[in-house]
Amino acid sequence: MSKINKVEVHVFQFDAINLGSVRGGGVGAFSYAKGAKTRIAKYAVAIMTDNGLRGEYVTHWVGSSAALGQTLMLAPYLLGREAEQREFIYDDLKRQARQFDHMGHGPLDIALWDLAGKKLGASISELLGAYRKRLPAYASTYHGDRNGGLDSKEAFAAFALQCYELGYRAFKIHGWNDGNIREEAQNLLHVRHTMGDRMTLMIDPACELRTFADALYVGRACDEADYFWYEDPFRDSGTSAFAHKKLREMIKTPLLQTEHVRGVEPKADFLMQGGTDFLRSDPEYDMGITGAMKIAHIAEGFGVDVEVHACGPAHRHCMAATRNSNFYEVALVGPDAPNAVPPVYKCGYSDQLDCIGKDGCVPVPTGPGLGVEYDWEFIAKNRVALHEFKL
């Protein structure tokens, strides 16, 4: 066994070009702004043991200051623990974060899985018993803007065509942040009219619609346009099982919920109360790979599908080992705007728009652990804080 004797948390920054923050920023709160340069902060975790093992993870969408605070709170609890006892550690960290939203737990668990894979010379997907090496992917757009990017239904349709030509066979719309229901409905209908049956289409208002009535209006447009799922429609923040059960009873389009319901137990409750058709999981958001796989299995037990939220190497490994999952989310993308994930890969790994193959799929990394090589020189050069915890 391997005793954890050190945990490092490196906070670093990088610039994203042609992206501006929306309403003061936040996770994913960006949209196209020509010529803009936005400074983005993320953090990297490294876990070391007394026998020379090292597990690593660099955050993607979970890397907010709120999540960082929780990671720093939880990291000391790893010291002196056996790194291989991920289930035991998961259970203890979940209790320690019970007063919070658990968002800082995931990066630590993922780094422990990376360590285990490197110790055994196997990829995480191999450890999980994965059965696929390529994952069907969808392009998940930035929110609509008023700046010459995704600023009209015609622009969304043109971008869907661009994605189709790259190889994508599925496309998800994030509409405008003001929640204009007629504009939202016209947009999703226009994209369907443009694409016909060539692409699977989804919509995620990201909880921007103001009322249940607004959600119903857009949902009926989803029915007309034959959308694959309708996700987090309105301002309950995606947490009311009762409201979404009522919505399911009034429209035909399947609902995808529980991105904002954290962990396996409340997701099971949400599903049992009839609040969703698909479950959401995310190894960053849902307490790591350990937590994400629990959610995949509870979904399988109920005979429903689980869709992995967002992107990253950990997400690919989880989906590779999940039978009941349909699409990998390349999020967030737009014309002339990068995916605002950190540029820290020396091995060619990418979640940028052009990561797709002509078969409409992305590959699962095959090297030990996460199967990626991080650019620690870049992280150190752009580091703004280093937190170290030692025995």
What's the SSE blueprint?
Layout (H helix, E strand, L loop, with lengths): L3 E18 L8 E20 L4 E5 L6 H10 L11 H11 L9 H15 L3 H5 L5 E10 L9 H14 L3 E5 L6 H15 L4 E4 L8 H14 L3 E3 L9 H10 L4 E3 L6 H9 L5 E4 L6 H14 L4 E3 L4 H8 L7 E6 L27 E3 L12 H6 L1 E8 L1
Parallel strand pairs: 4-5, 4-11, 5-6, 6-7, 7-8, 8-9, 9-10
Antiparallel strand pairs: 1-2, 1-13, 2-3, 4-12
Helix pairs in contact: 3-10, 5-6, 6-7
Description:
Helix content is 34%, strand content 24%. The chain has 12 helices and 13 strands. The protein has helices at 65-74, 86-96, 106-120, 124-128, 153-166, 181-195, 212-225, 241-250, 264-272, 288-301, 313-320, 376-381; strands at residues 4-21, 30-49, 54-58, 134-143, 170-174, 200-203, 229-231, 255-257, 278-281, 306-308, 328-333, 361-363, 383-390. Strands 4, 5, 6, 7, 8, 9, 10, 11 and 12 form a 9-stranded mixed beta sheet that branches. Strands 3-2-1-13 form a 4-stranded antiparallel beta sheet. Helix 9 links the parallel strand 8 and strand 9 (278-281). Helix 3 (106-120) packs across helix 10 and helix 5 packs parallel to helix 6 (181-195). The chain starts with a strand and ends with a strand.
